[in-house]
Amino acid sequence: MPDIRKVRRRIKGVQNIAKITRAMEMIAASKMKKAQERGLAGRPYAEKIEQVIADLAALPDIGLQHPLLQRRPINRAAVVHITPDRGLCGGLNANLNRQLAGFILQQDINVKVIAVGRKGRDAAARFACDLAAEFTGLSDQPSFIDTLPISNIIIEEYTKGIIDVVYVSYAGFVSTLVQKPVMKQLLPVEPAQIPGGQNVDYIYEPGAEAVLGGLLPRFVEMEIYHAILESIASEQSARMVAMRNATDSANELIGDLTLLYNKARQEAITRDLLDIIGGVVALE
Amino acid sequence: MPSFTIDIVTAERIVYSEEVNAVIAPGVEGQLGILPHHAPLMTILQAGELVVRKGEQEEIMAISGGFLEVRPDHVIVLADQAERAEEIDAARAEAARKRAEERLKDKQATGLDATRAEAALRRALVRLSVADKIKRRRKL
């Protein structure tokens, strides 16, 4: 026999939770849309820069001479691990961190971790990784400039020869329902293959080498920026789905509890009636 | 009048994309005028004013470095940052100029910091000059 008052309090509590998760779902939906739009807005820049680098790297006299293009024997690797700052987004964080752990275990060389986002940093600290740097508290709408310190670190360490290969790990956005952890090589830059016969003879000012040297760091910065934007879109869509599930479960629970409450109430009324009738009968 | 398309893009957005007749850009080796049928060119830009001419109209933009690519059919500017004149916050640029000047006075040329401050100063000056030109033009 459940306590009616307790059940009623429980229903109130679950209703409040449902309200909160519903609100979080809507907030996540709008943030996801914004992050996606920003990702799309930067696409022309990304496509252009990729194409120009491919053009330049194909030139016989300068191709692959730049430090950011050069392949070295690999002694030390680094991973830029991009995760959300917050939880409540389903299995997203767990999947990302598992990917990182698996990756590090596979390597037989020292792997440094550069953590972007609190969840990844915490995980890296738990795994006792070599945490080289951490960046937390990026906003939901980071500007390009906000992400520059991250790219500066890796470009600097790579150029100095402290690390020989850099990977970036982030939540790839497949669709609203599916986010896939991605691990891809960032440095050395691997220029895309250009289909033959598309080369235009450019005049380079002040020179092909200088142009390539200026473009490559931009390319790395942009890749990081895009990975962060994509990771935000993934985070928000994962949160949206998680919160929708939570809202649905809460509503279901409210239904069950209401049934329980009504049954208990009816039972109580019946019992009261029986008492009264019993009393009346006893008096007669 | 012959014309060509110009796209000015940054990593964050498309700033400008239209059919124009001429472009004047701040190349690292000096001002650069581009008219239709220009030879293919790829150059680094420095912080400066980028002027776009469309018939009788002219639009000025502040850019803080980047790259310019001339293709047979169109021109692409990959800017680090770019602002159309009406988007410039003159007060903020003024504040940035003061900050950069102070920093330059403060630390007499200590390598990286000085270079950074100088770059910031140049960007602020470009913004101010663009904002100023637009204001004056409106008064006329």
> What low-confidence regions of chain A span 5 or more consecutive residues with pLDDT below 50?
none
Give the spatial strand order of the biggest sheet of chain A. 3-2-1-4-5
Beta strand count of chain B: 8
- Please give the share of residues in helix of chain A: 55-70%
Radius of gyration of chain A, rounded?
A: 28 Å
Beta content of chain B comes to 35-45%
Mean pLDDT of chain B: 84
Overall structural class of chain A, as computed from helix and strand content, comes to alpha/beta
Can you tell me the overall shape of chain B? globular
Task: Please give the radius of gyration of chain B in angstroms.
Answer: 16 Å
Biggest sheet character of chain B: 8 strands, mixed
Largest sheet data of chain A:
5 strands, mixed
User: Could you tell me the number of beta strands of chain A?
Assistant: 6
Given the structure, what is the number of helices of chain A? Answer: 6
Helix content of chain B: 25-40%
Q: Mean of the pLDDT scores of chain A?
A: 87
The largest interface is:
A-B, 26 and 23 residues
CATH class category name of the largest domain in chain B: Mainly Beta
Number of domains of chain B: 2
- The geometry of chain A reads as elongated
CATH superfamily of the largest domain in chain A: ATP synthase, F1 complex, gamma subunit
